[in-house]
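Let's do one together. I've listed all components of the complex below, 762 residues spread over two lines.
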Amino acid sequence: MKFSGIFSAFRLTIICLVFFSVLYPLAITGIAQFAPAKGKGETVEVNGKIVGFQKIGQSFTDSIYFLGRPSAVNYNAAGSGGSNKGPSNPDYLKEVQARIDAFLVRHPYLQKKDIPADLVTASGSGLDPDISAEAALVQVKRIAQVRKIPEEKVKQLVEKNIQKPLWGMFGTEKVNVLELNIELNSIR
Amino acid sequence: MNTEIFGIVAMFIVTVGLAIPLGKYIAKVYAGEKTFLDPVFNPLERLFFRASGIDAKAEMNWKQHLYALLIINVIWFFLCFFILMNQGWLPFNPDGNPSMSPDLAFNTTISFLVNCNLQHYSGESGLTYLSQVAGIMFLQFVTAGTGMAACAMVFNAMKDRQSEKLGNFYDYFIKSCTRILFPISFIAAIILVFSGTPMNWEGKQTITTLQGDTVQVSRGPAAAMVAIKQAGTNGGGYFGANSAHPLENPTYLTNAVENILIILIPIGMVFALGYYLKRKKLAWMILGVMTIGFLMLLIPAVMQEMKGNSAITKMGIDQQMGSMEGKEVRFGSAASAYWGITTTVTSNGSVNAMHDSFTPLTGGLAMLGMMVNSLYGGVGVGFLNFYIFIILAVFISGLMVGRTPELLGKKVEAREVKIAAIIAILHPLLILAGTALAAYFTAHNTDMGYWYNGKASGWLNNPGHHGFSEMLYEYTSSAANNGSGFEGLGDNNPFWNITTGIVMLLSRYLPIIGPLAIAGLLAKKKYIPESAGTLKTDTSTFGIMVFAVIFIIAALSFFPALALGPFAEYFSMN
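Okay, and this is what the predicted structure of the assembly comes out as:
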C-alpha cells in the first residue's frame, strides 16, 4: 500500500498540474482576448505612437509637466517596489525634507502646509500612476506660468481629469498624471 | 476622507454577506451532499481519481490522512525545487531570467509549499512564466487545498459519534481545489483581466515615455495567479510590489475584490463548521471571538495610518491623506491599513502598501495579527490554530469548575492537552528564537562569511527600533506562514533563506499534525451525550474564555519583543 500510495500521489500531482497550470491559465488567456488590450496591458498612444501604459506611472521631471510622486525604482517598470523606509528613519526624514524644499523652490507661491503628502512620499509600487486631486491643483499656477497659458484653463483641465471615488462613495479621488499631461500638451 | 471609511466598511459587510452562503456550500461539499456544481465537477473528479488510481471513497483514520498529506507534499517539493533551479533554460522565459541559487530555491520552494509565500525575490526578474504558472501558481492551489482538507478532517472528527474513519484525504483535497478554490479564482481572474491586469505570454515591452525616457514594462500571465493568490490565503505576488503594483491591482474595485478574497474563505470555513456539525451557535461564538480580536487590531491601525506619520507632520506637512509613504493614491491610507490587517490576521501576506513604511503601531498590530494567527487565519489552517486554543480553553475551564474537560461530547485528557500545549508554545519559540539569533548577530555586527555577504547589520534597511522590527517581522511572518515582510530587510542570502525556510517548514507541518492528532484521538473516544453538567462551548462565557487564552498565550508571550520594536519606535516619535 505504501509504495502504490506514492505512485498515486505522483499521478494525482501530474493531473492537478494539467488542470490548474495548463487548462486554467489557458482559459483565462482565452477570455482575456475579449478584455481591453487583449490582456496585454492597456497602452496610451499619441499620434499613433505608444507613449506609455495607462496604469503604469512614469517619471515627470520637466517643469512643463505635472509632476508625479517620488519613486523608489525611478519609474522603471521592469521592476517595482517601495522605499521600505521606516517612519522614524533619520535618513528618510532628511530625504522627505529635501523633497519639500525642492518642491517649494519650484512653487514659490506655496507654503509648506499646502503641499499634499503624496508628493513628498514614495509610492508602494514605485509606479503609482496617480496623484491626489490637491496634488494636481497646487501645480496649476506653475504650469500656467511655464507654459504661458491662462491659469483658469489649466485648472479646468485638472478638474475634468479628477476621477471621483468608486461609484461616488468608496475610496479616494485621484488624477492620472500621464493622461493629464497628454491633454495638457494639446492645449495651445 | 469619509469615502475611504465607507470603502472599508462596505468591504467587510460584503465579505461576511458572501461568507454565509459560501460556508453553507463548503459544508455541503465536505458532507458529500448535492450542490449545483455537481454536473460539472462529478465527472471531472472521477477523471482525476481514475487517472491517479485513487479510491476516494475509502475512509481513512487520522494517521492515514497525515501520511497521504505528507507524501504528496514531498512530491510537490521536488517538483517545484526542480523548476526553480532550472527555470533559466526551461521554456516560457521570454525575459531570459536566470535559474535560482540553491538557497533561494530552497527558501522559495518551502515558502510556497507551506502556503507561506514569503518572497526573497522579485517576480519580474526572479521567476520565469513557467515558474510562475507551474511552480508558484500550482502550489497556490494545491497547498490551500491541503490546509482545507486537513480542516475538513477535523470537522469530520468533531461529529457526535465514535469512529476512527474520518473521510478520505484525497477526496477532501481535490474537492477543496476544484469545487471551492477553482470557481472563486476563475471569477476573480475574469474581473481582474477586464480591469486591466495582464494575462499574456509575451515578455517585457520597451516604450518611450511622454518625456522621452526609455523604460521597460513587465507583464505576463498575472491575472490567473493573482486570483488564487488572494483566494487561497497564499499572498505571493506576481510582481515584486505585490498588490501595490498597478497591473496586479489596477483599481479601487479590484482592490476591494482582492481584499474580500483574503478573508472570504477563512470566514466561510467558520460558517461551514456550523452548518457541517449543525452547531450554528458554536460557529457564531468562534466568529465572534475572531471578529472582536480582528477589530481590536483594525481600528487603531486605520486611525494611525489616516493620521499620518507624526515626524512628517512635525515638518509642517498637512497629511490629509494620511501616511502615504509606501502607499498608492488609488487605495488611500484607510484601504491600505484595512488590507494590512486582513492580510496578517489571515495567513495571506499579500500587500497593497509597504508594511515597512507603516507607522509604528500599525506595523506592530500587523505583527500581533500574525502572532495570534487564528483570527480568521489561513484557509483551513486558521481554524486548526483556533482549535488548539479551544482545546486549551476547554481544559482550563474544566479545571476552574472542577469537572473533566469535555469538547462536544468527548473527554479531553492529558495526551490531547499535551499536544495542544506543545503546538501553542512552538509558535512563540520559533519567532523569538529566530529573532534573538538575528538580533545577536546584528548587535555584534558579526562577519557572516558564507551566510551573508558582509557584516550582519548590513541586512537592515532602517536603524534603531525599526531595524529590530524588521527582523522580528520576518520571523513572525515565516512562523505564521504569512509571507508579507518588512521588505527593506536584505533577506536574499543564505542566512535568511535557510533560517526562515526551516521556521516555515516546522510551523506549517507541526500545527497541522497536532490538531489532526488531537481530533483523531478525540474521535476514537466514546461519545457522551450532553447533560446538565456539560461545559457548553457555544456560549459567550466560553467565548470570553477562549479569548483570554489567546490573549495570554499568544499576545503576552510576544509583548516584550513588541515593546522593543514597534512600541519603542512609537514612543520615541511622539
